[in-house]
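During the reporting period the student researcher (J.K.) took over the structure-prediction task from the postdoctoral fellow and processed the backlog of single-chain submissions. One of the processed entries is reproduced below for the supervisory committee.
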Amino acid sequence: GYSQTYVLTPAPFGAASGPYGFAMRGGNTVEGEPGSPFVLAYISQTGQLGPGVASVNLLAGGARFQLTLNDTPIDMRPVGLDPSSPTYDDDLLNYWGEWTGDAAAFAGQTVELRITELQGPPNPPMLVIDEIRFLPAVPEPAPAALFGLGLLGMLLAARRSARVEATARPAPRV
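J.K. obtained the following structure tokens:
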């Protein structure tokens, strides 16, 4: 057996993620003794979330993981994979990319973020994570579009009213 492993590794996510990712995997409590208890690897950080936080996003791949906020599991979904696909479960095992989860219930709070690698013995793969970030809600385009259409309608109505007024005036006497 081997013990838990935590390392910086060249990031497999491309130029957007920077040169390194953080990798971890579980292991036996006593290295070299396969019979010793197995412990899952995890990292945690406590901090204050902004009041407008809507989601938590990260890049991850290599192993199954769980993300919790204050011990509450967050349903993390891979961005770009179709859950209705017949190969979805297999695709998840091989997915290296962006994951997103709903964090709105924790906005404005002090939280403990914990990411745990979930694949146990006998030979767990390394979970690689990078670019952990909390994102604000993206404004819905519908309200902005309705506002814009209303403003355009008011401008057109004012222009039409000005034209009608100009044609309704009597001609000046000479």
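The committee noted the following: The longest strand covers residues 127-136.
J.K. will present the remaining backlog at the next meeting.
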